Amino acid sequence: MMTTKKVALITGANRGIGLETAKQLGELGTTVIVTARHLPVAQETATQLKAQGIDAYGVQLDVTKADERRAVASFIDEHFGKLDILVNNAGVAPKESLFIAKTLETTPEEFQYIFETNLFSVVYLTRELLPLIKKSKSGRIVNLSSILGSLSVHSQKDSPIAPYRILSYDASKAALNLFTIFLAAELEGTGIKVNSAHPGWVQTEIGGYEHAPMSIVDGAKTSVDLALLDANGPTGKFIHLGDELPW
């Protein structure tokens, strides 16, 4: 059944930036579908949002599982008939730490773990949901990236992000940025906008709570802004709080 309200799917929405993104979108009148790897967690997240007056639904989605990607597409098609906003928020960092720089020591297992969630699953989920996004009058796809994926910034002399050269994570975000560029170009003329978001260094489990300068509330703002772009907004760009970043 087609709805006139905007419908957004946010992956990894049970905590951190994903949860705050769902909250901010919901407060602005968007119906939000919040996903987590376990159904009770997703449903509890939706219940918390509903208590705040937000139209929210909790759905199980492990983005690495093809059957669950298909199931969430079927859920959206059955309940809403379209998808206006896809926020590819779910992501992982190396299990030891995001702050231990290493290159040749990166293991095959770490590469597989990071890329499976941060790149491959984003591509596969977006492909699964694209027919529903094409039914929207203003489809928006937001890929949660990081300044750590910027080749331009990494290659600068005395780069400010040099201490965080973690090959698996940084390469996954650089590849995600390339996906943004390619997909935006392929969808040119459709009205669908595709952008990469750098949320900032945010006080989350990945970003760390001790030194990260940005609150989760501020960290979600870039995703929300890109999710609600008007027809004149950018596409195929790398954005942080309204400013374009170098690839």
From TrEMBL:
Keywords of the record: NADP, Oxidoreductase
InterPro entries listed in its UniProt record: CBR1-like (IPR045313), NAD(P)-bd_dom_sf (IPR036291), SDR_fam (IPR002347)
Gene Ontology terms for molecular function: oxidoreductase activity, acting on the CH-OH group of donors, NAD or NADP as acceptor
Keyword NADP: yes
CDD domains recorded: carb_red_PTCR-like_SDR_c
Keyword NADP: yes
Gene3D superfamilies per the UniProt record, alphabetical: NAD(P)-binding Rossmann-like Domain
PANTHER family associated with the record: (+)-NEOMENTHOL DEHYDROGENASE, SHORT-CHAIN DEHYDROGENASE_REDUCTASE
Family named by the database record: Belongs to the short-chain dehydrogenases/reductases (SDR) family.
The name this protein goes by in its record: SDR family NAD(P)-dependent oxidoreductase
UniProt source species: Spirosoma endbachense
Organism taxonomic ancestry: Bacteria, Pseudomonadati, Bacteroidota, Cytophagia, Cytophagales
